[in-house]
Amino acid sequence: MAYGGPSMNPPAMSGAVPGSGNIKQVKLERESELRIEVSEEPLSLRVVNGTAEIFGSELPPGNSLTFPPHLKFAVFTWYGATIEIDGVTETDYTADETPMVSYINVHAILDARRRLAKASSSDDPESSQGPRVIVVGPTDSGKSTLTKMLLSWAAKQGWKPTFVDLDVGQGSITIPGSIAATPIEMPLDPVEGFPLDMALVYYYGHAAPGNNVELYKALVKELAQVLERQFVGNPESRAAGMVINTMGWIDGVGYELLLHAIDTFNASVVLVLGQEKLFSMLKDVLKSKSNVDVVKLHKSGGVVARTSKVRQRARNYRIHEYFYGLSKELSPYANTTSFNDLQVFRIGGGPQAPKSALPIGSDPVSNPLRVTPVNMDDRDLLHSVLAVSYAEEPDQIVSSNVSGFVYVTEVDVARKKITFLAPSPGILPSKILVAGSLSWLESLEARR
Ligand SMILES: Nc1ncnc2c1ncn2[C@@H]1O[C@H](COP(=O)(O)OP(=O)(O)OP(=O)(O)O)[C@@H](O)[C@H]1O
């Protein structure tokens, strides 16, 4: 069970119409969508008639939903709908060319495979395993969006697929720098996104897998093994399978990491979004595996490209959201404690062995999985985000998941005290904390 975070948010802010006076109705023809970028101000929206969905989650008829500033999304209708928006948007336009039919066709095939898996004997691990789908593609190809749709459509039909997020850059389930998995038991909330309360989270600590490739791979393996064990005792989630979202780094080491993920999770369906070259490379390298399908899909014209600055800002919003909620409805708790009450560790770096102990001619390499204690007066601790590990001993840190995160707001070296924000009151579930390179300047954030 995850420790605090946005799971404590109330459901989507329904009914809180800002009453901007800028109300307009948009009539959508069948199989078309209204693409919206919310401005600096929240936006309200409701379905006046017909049916419509946001990334696979059907909108409740009549009820208004309020969307926070800067959100980018599309309201899609299969059969036609009239949508009312209340507020000023950054942009909004309708589009009738979408890849949605190809996406729903993929869903139909996955659905058939889930039914086959469910009908087969649960003693046979092969046939009782539902589809393990991995979504790959360059940055801004719509991977997270397709993942959401596939999960929401599956959940709408009563399946409980497992969502796996390997994208440390953005973090759909919890704060960036983590990899995580969670069962999806109902269509996703179009505003809140993925639930956190049942998530299994591993903290990598950096926004890019390249910072410590070996650690990233070790955590991916750890997560996959835990899920594998959970599937053994749970035929329902085994049949529902998984949908895995990946990062947009697809060249060089990034490509190797994709292959590593495909292999580690035993993916049976690889969905390649928006890149011919990646598709043919994967198709070629996986052709010997008869049980893996590699499928090419078009990127939606609605996907909004983000600069690295915008991505950095999005990461900060995610951290802010973890502690304060999507619309500042949560209040984190400030805690001051003695240096002695906590132990902070960092993973990676440091020499593996002295040169004298190595074969002649080889250089000492730093051990990427080495766990080293961090001095509490280390200046880098201030404003850093630390994960609260479930490890009981430091040497278990790499193989342990985390219960949540704290944010260091003050380090008082003279009094040997550290002050941090935590999402829940009371003592932390563990004294062992893990640092990475992720920091967050809350004071700057507050001015956004
Ligand atoms: N059809 C659409 N209409 C409007 N906005 C969309 C549409 N599809 C996706 N978006 C928006 O475009 C942005 C990028 O999409 P998404 O996050 O799915 O891409 P990605 O490939 O996962 O990106 P990353 O490489 O960062 O992981 C998101 O803000 C998403 O909500």
TrEMBL record:
Which residues belong to any copy of the Clp1 P-loop domain? 137-325
An example Pfam family from this entry, by short name, is CLP1_N
Q: Where in the cell is it found?
A: Nucleus
- From which lineage does this chain's organism come? Eukaryota, Viridiplantae, Streptophyta, Embryophyta, Tracheophyta
Q: Which domain of life is it from?
A: Eukaryota
Q: Where is this region: Disordered?
A: 1-21
Keyword line: ATP-binding, mRNA processing, Nucleotide-binding, Nucleus
**Could you tell me what this protein is called?**
Protein CLP1 homolog
